Amino acid sequence: MSQRTFSIIKPDAVRKGYTGAILAEIEKAGFKIVSIKKFSLSKAQAEGFYHVHAARPFFGSLTDFMSNGPIFPMVLEKENAIADLRKLMGATNPANAEEGTIRKQFASSIEENAIHGSDAEDTAAFEIGYFFAGVELK
Ligand code: CMP
After folding, report:
1. Domain boundaries in the chain?
2. How far is the CA of 96 from the centre of ligand 1 (A)?
3. Most buried in the list 18, 42, 121, 136, measured by CB within 10 Å?
4. DSSP track, the chain
């Protein structure tokens, strides 16, 4: 059954001009782009998005990074979208990512790791709703 997931092309990848190449990988892997926009998060909006990581030592640095330049949040759809996107992204730390994954090709560190993808159905629902209204998701 078709499933939706949420993804962000992060500020490091946008700044380096990798947006088109990453979208090409996503489409090549069979995802339909349901909705996408260019957006700049405030620090408070980044903190709200990553609230589950609030107690982590990297929370301040992560939310500074995510609010320091434009991002492309998007909703993607395909069979098994959540697991398949995480496979296509590769490990959180690009040093551990498999050849051919988006993070292996485009990420530079565990924080500046080019792309985000939801890890479960409940987080996908929260993350989609954080950036997109229902009328943007036909
Ligand atoms: P993401 O998939 O967006 O989810 C949480 C983010 O926190 C993760 O990608 C990384 O960008 C960042 N992150 C995770 N672990 C660390 C870490 N140990 N140090 C710095 N940033 C991290």
Report:
1. 2-136
2. 13
3. 18
4. -EEEEEEEE-HHHHHTT-HHHHHHHHHHTT-EEEEE--B---HHHHHHHTGGGTTSTTHHHHHHHHTSS-BEEEEEEEETHHHHHHHHH--SSGGGPPTTSHHHHH--SSSS-SEEE-SSHHHHHHHHHHH--GGG--
